[in-house]
TrEMBL record:
Residues 458-516 form the PucR C-terminal helix-turn-helix domain. This is PucR family transcriptional regulator. Residues 11-130 form the Purine catabolism PurC-like domain. InterPro entries: CdaR-like_regulators, PucR_C-HTH_dom, PucR_C-HTH_sf, PucR_dom.
Length: 533
């Protein structure tokens, strides 16, 4: 059975005391909704109306003044009144034609009682009906909510909820999940998503469409619409739509949890993928058997390191769902594994590669600003590895993501992407290919040993002196030492590094070695000389 709980002018005309009436204007407004009935005998009424009132009047305040009647009528139209009923049974008087023309232009119903009618009985009858209708609406809403709850316990697909919505209201239902085609119930309907968009610009049609966004994990996951073909959307329709959207969101969230559990079983395979143990063919076969089938355009690895990782299983699952939801809306498919205080994600790119980094940046920003992170007041370090084209190279991205996490903890600024590490990237490659520590100490060993032995500050002085381009006055000011102390330190540096350490080529190498030294210390690879900055 279909319910709408909407009393229209047409419904009013079927009730008692409306047998002897004459329509003189606005017959196109029979669809207008009536929420209350007022008896009005004054000309100035606009401030007393809230909209959708049916006005009963004998015309005492304006029957002898055509201009007053037109002004009165204009106020009713501006206030979105439902119609005007005039009692002509006790005293017949002419209705100004300019008023009739105005009502017709706005499809505002004007009808005449040809016999005297008791207004008090009309208002009592209609108000009693409206109050009863309101109680019935509350009862039906509760019953519908119970039906939804029962559905949620047994359904396999959200289409069953959409069908329940259609059966209850009789309206066409449209459902659009992000990245998917529009679903229409009933399927025989010719209403399209494009038509709904067109309705937004047409006032009459706009009143026949209601929309509710479906939020899952704080993200706009889908959109639900209803379209009423022959009537306006009622308050009851919007309440039912709201309850339905909540039920759909709960079902989708349950599906995501089930999906996450299945993915957890794939951890072992994903872990071996991250360590370079699979070929392109093996990876393609794996993706075909999972949810990620489609034309993949490379990807990357993203590591999220928590200072205090959520301890409960539900929190960990929620974080992974939140991460996946955010990045899937940005064109990435995510596979994850969890290890102690880290969550590692393989992000497969299914959109254009030219804006891949910008989309990753957007996703990281949304993730770090999410309510989940803010409420727990935990610090998360995010590291994104090298962007790769061949999926069999994912282990390279994984290794560089780990490098990004290690280095980022000691950088002065936040740097989520491996490719933004610049000099640190070169140092990382040099460290892989050669004995970087040995090269560094060939140049800096005397200074490091001196500071360690005498608790000196030659390394600090060297850094500042180089950054000031050899300006002794600026260096002294930045170190907060007198110039004589600075001269003594520079003399000591010349003795340890050579008098030519400020010559262009040697200076360039020493500056590079200082950055390399900092890199080794930050990544805890300077084992023999653990001297801090």
């Amino acid at each position: 059975m279909q319910y709408h709980f909407q009393l229209t002018v047409t419904d009013i005309l079927k009730r008692k005391h409306f047998e002897n009436i004459q329509f003189i204007a606005g017959q196109g407004g029979l669809y207008r909704v009536v929420k209350w009935v007022h008896v009005v005998e004054v000309a100035k009424i606009k401030s007393l109306l809230n909209g959708n009132e049916l006005i009963l009047s004998t015309g005492v305040g304006w029957r002898d003044d055509s201009q007053a009647f037109v002004a009165f009528l204009q106020e009713l139209i501006d206030s979105n009144a439902s119609g005007l009923c005039i009692d002509m049974g006790s005293s017949v008087f002419p209705i100004p034609q300019e008023g009739v023309a105005l009502a017709n232009a706005h499809q505002f119903p004007i009808l005449l009682f040809l016999k005297e009618v008791p207004f008090v009985e009309i208002t009592h009858d209609i108000h009693s009906h409206l109050i009863h209708q309101h109680y019935q609406m509350i009862s039906n809403l509760e019953e519908y909510s119970q039906q939804l709850n029962k559905k949620l316990l047994s359904i396999q697909h959200h289409e069953e909820i959409l069908s329940l919505l259609h059966d209850h209201l009789g309206h066409t239902v449209l459902f659009r999940m992000k990245g998917n085609d529009v679903q229409v119930v009933p399927s025989s309907s010719d209403v399209s998503y494009a038509f709904l968009v067109e309705c937004q610009g047409k006032e009459l049609l706009q009143k026949r469409v209601a929309h509710q966004s479906i939020q899952v994990l704080g993200q706009n996951y889908a959109d639900l619409y209803i379209y009423a073909e022959d009537e306006e959307i009622s308050e009851y329709d919007t309440l039912i739509l709201d309850r339905t959207s909540t039920a759909v969101a709960q079902h989708l969230l349950r599906d995501l949890y089930v999906e996450e559990k299945k993915r957890a079983e794939e951890d072992e395979w994903v872990n071996s993928w991250l360590h370079g143990e699979h070929t392109e063919i093996e990876i393609a076969d794996f993706l075909k058997s999972s949810y990620a089938n489609g034309k993949c355009k490379g990807g990357t690895v993203c590591i999220c390191k928590f200072h205090e990782f959520p301890q409960s299983g539900s929190d960990k699952t929620y974080f992974k769902l939140l991460f996946r939801t955010i990045f899937e809306q940005l064109g990435f498919y995510a596979l994850s594994i969890e290890k102690r205080n880290e969550a590692t994600f393989i992000l497969l790119n299914y959109r254009e590669t030219k804006n891949q980094k910008q989309r990753l940046e957007m996703g990281i920003e949304k993730l770090l600003n999410s309510e989940f992170i803010k409420k727990r007041k935990t610090v998360v370090t995010v590291g994104v590895g090298k962007l790769i084209e061949q999926l069999s190279d994912m282990h390279r991205s994984f290794k560089t993501a780990q490098e990004t996490i290690r280095v980022q903890n000691n950088l002065a600024k936040v740097c989520h992407f491996y490719e933004d590490l610049h000099m640190y990237r070169i140092l990382s490659m040099l460290n892989e290919q050669s004995d970087l520590q040995g090269i560094v100490m060939e140049y800096l060993d005397p200074v490091v040993r001196y500071d360690k032995k005498y608790n000196g500050k030659l390394m600090e002085t060297l850094r500042v002196y180089l950054s000031c381009n050899g300006s002794k006055q600026e260096t002294a000011n930045r170190l907060f030492v007198v110039r004589q102390t600075l001269y003594h330190r520079i003399t000591k540096l010349e003795g340890l590094l050579g008098n030519d350490f400020m010559n262009s080529e040697k200076r360039l190498v020493i500056e590079f070695m200082l950055q390399a030294y900092d890199y080794l210390v930050s990544t805890k690879q300077m084992k023999q000389y653990p001297v801090e900055r």
